[in-house]
């Protein structure tokens, strides 16, 4: 395929989505290369980054991003950023009238943000001709310091490495981030908020980023799924579908891990928001995938997935968002590649068949590969079961209709087994002659008749500060398993990690969606949650949505002879 840059615009809607997005952008920034003499990277940064210029002539690199959040959610981050400050020109303005000074103590910055403040310049190229660049983020690498921010991260800007464009951050002032009053809790509230000035502001920002693109391939949306941002996300995807219907719209519904403080009412609201959000966002998107480290999105709690080589607190947003961002960095690789890159809608079309727009995600974070071994060795060690865990609270079972698998970060490892001439391969996997054939053969043994798309990318995700060190001591600095460990030596900081991910459409989504339908249908919402519908939707619209969700679940039914758990309930 052509190496033409196909730009992507990202939207982040909600506080947890901005947590995941911040980690994701930090990962993108850590992989940027400014050396014109180095070979082109496998992943094109200009797919998601834009190049601009400050009034002073500095060339800047900022995300092609619109991020929405609530009043009080930014803390130390300036909404307009600092790249385009007027500087001394602003101080030249004079006012001859009386002045009243109001003083307010600024929010305390953590050690990471204080170090960022000490660096001397915004991101810029050193000159227009050299092609080289010196950025705040590259300067940060010179500070040899390890940050432990678990106790100091309150909001997503507390660990943001990069500068944002002035048109990126939009604040919804009608609702508060903190406190119990004026919270964006219900689907109808989110639907109602996108009108008037906020709608005009969103459309203005979209036009700004779209008009800069030479070949816009589409939008990737990160949206909170368990609160009122779900309604906002539904309206945003509807707007994008109406205005840019020929582009890809890939939506990721984010739900944080099990909260430390919950209640039956909050659990009910989360269930109803997820139920309506999954249906509406899937309807208006090319593809919709929920992402969460919860064991279940329903009202019944379930233990979170266990990753063998990670030690993290699922209830700590700084941790759970880091794991999801690392997986998302692999899941979004296909349409960000420099060569042989499919478009967003091609990725969606390969999975979305017969109206099955909801898919589930799975990931091996990190992929368990021994340092110095080969891909056949690593996969043979996983012959008894797939190495990945659910990232969408949807366990694998039943039939898989299609999947897209990405292996990223095997740099320095062997993709095939180099056997002596005439030697018998120890397993069939060791007899293949390319990494793609090895991985395809392994997956075919679990999914014999499933259409399969593969992407293998050598470069790993770079885990620079302040990515949390949530990895086990069994990993070396490159994220590979190490056979020998020094008994008294501290474990090395993991600076990169191999990741294996899968996007799937399968019959497991039949029972998963049906569980939402059954749980929501079993609630007397008029009695239990009347305030949920205070700003919409109407009860008739809600009942129609439940029926549409039921029909969507039936599209995933396995008609090949096997029946899923929910199939017996279809005639209820």
Automatic annotation (TrEMBL):
InterPro entries: DML1/Misato, DML1/Misato_tubulin, Misato_II_tubulin-like, Tubulin/FtsZ_GTPase_sf
Occurrences of domain DML1/Misato tubulin (ranges): 152-337
Biased composition (Basic and acidic residues): 106-117
GO CC entries: cytoplasm; mitochondrion
Locations listed in the record: Cytoplasm; Mitochondrion
Span of domain Misato Segment II tubulin-like: 6-118
Function: Involved in the regulation of mitochondrial distribution and morphology. Required for mitochondrial fusion and mitochondrial network formation.
Alphabetized PANTHER family for the sequence: MITOCHONDRIAL DISTRIBUTION REGULATOR MISATO, PROTEIN MISATO HOMOLOG 1
Protein known as: Protein misato homolog 1
Species whose genome carries this gene: Oryzias latipes
Gene: msto1
């Amino acid at each position: 395929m052509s190496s033409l840059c196909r730009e992507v615009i990202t939207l982040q809607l909600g506080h947890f989505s901005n947590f995941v997005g911040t980690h994701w952008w930090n990962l993108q920034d850590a992989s940027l290369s400014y050396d014109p003499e180095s070979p082109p990277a496998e992943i094109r940064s200009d797919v998601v980054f834009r190049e601009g210029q400050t009034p002073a002539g500095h060339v800047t690199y900022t995300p092609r991003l619109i991020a929405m959040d609530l009043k009080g959610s930014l803390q130390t981050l300036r909404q307009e950023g600092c790249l385009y400050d007027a500087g001394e020109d602003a101080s030249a303005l004079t006012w001859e009238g009386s002045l009243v000074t109001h003083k307010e103590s600024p929010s305390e910055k953590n050690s990471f943000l204080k170090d960022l403040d000490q660096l001397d310049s915004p991101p810029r190229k050193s000159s227009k001709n050299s092609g080289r660049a010196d950025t705040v983020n590259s300067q940060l690498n010179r500070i040899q310091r390890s940050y432990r921010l678990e106790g100091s991260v309150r909001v997503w800007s507390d660990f943001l490495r990069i500068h944002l464009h002035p048109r990126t951050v939009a604040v919804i002032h009608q609702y508060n981030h903190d406190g119990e009053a004026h919270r964006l809790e219900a689907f109808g509230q989110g639907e109602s908020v996108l009108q008037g000035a906020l709608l005009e502001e969103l459309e203005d920002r979209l036009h700004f980023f779209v008009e800069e693109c030479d070949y816009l391939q589409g939008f990737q949306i990160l949206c909170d799924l368990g609160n009122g941002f779900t309604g906002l996300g539904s309206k945003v995807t509807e707007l994008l579908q109406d205005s840019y219907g020929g582009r890809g719209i890939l939506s990721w519904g984010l739900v944080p891990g099990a909260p430390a403080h919950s209640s039956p009412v909050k659990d009910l609201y989360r269930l109803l928001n997820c139920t309506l959000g999954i249906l509406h966002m899937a309807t208006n998107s090319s593809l919709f995938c929920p992402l969460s480290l919860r064991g279940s999105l329903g009202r019944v709690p379930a233990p979170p997935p266990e990753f063998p080589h990670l030690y993290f607190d699922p209830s700590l947003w700084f941790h759970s968002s880091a794991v999801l961002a690392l997986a998302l960095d692999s899941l979004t690789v296909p349409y960000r590649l420099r060569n042989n890159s499919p478009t967003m809608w091609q990725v969606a079309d390969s999975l979305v068949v017969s109206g099955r727009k909801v898919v589930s995600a799975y990931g091996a974070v990190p992929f368990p590969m021994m340092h110095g071994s080969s891909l056949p060795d690593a996969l043979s060690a996983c012959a008894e079961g797939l190495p990945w865990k659910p990232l969408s609270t949807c366990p694998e079972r039943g039939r898989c209709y299609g999947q897209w698998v990405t292996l990223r970060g095997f740099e320095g490892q062997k993709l095939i087994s180099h056997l002596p001439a005439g030697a018998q391969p120890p397993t069939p996997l060791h007899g293949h002659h390319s990494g793609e054939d090895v991985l395809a053969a392994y997956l075919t043994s679990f999914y014999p008749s499933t259409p399969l798309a593969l992407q293998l990318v050598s470069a790993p995700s770079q885990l620079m500060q302040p990515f949390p060190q949530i990895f086990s001591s069994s990993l070396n600095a490159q994220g590979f398993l190490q056979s020998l460990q020094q008994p008294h030596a501290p474990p090395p900081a993991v600076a990169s990690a191999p990741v294996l991910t899968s996007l799937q459409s399968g019959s497991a989504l039949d029972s998963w969606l049906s569980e939402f339908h059954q749980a929501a249908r079993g609630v007397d919402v008029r009695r239990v949650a009347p305030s949920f519908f205070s700003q919409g939707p109407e009860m008739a619209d809600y009942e129609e949505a439940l029926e549409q969700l039921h029909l969507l679940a039936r599209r995933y039914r396995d008609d090949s002879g096997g029946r899923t758990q929910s199939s017996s309930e279809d005639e209820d």
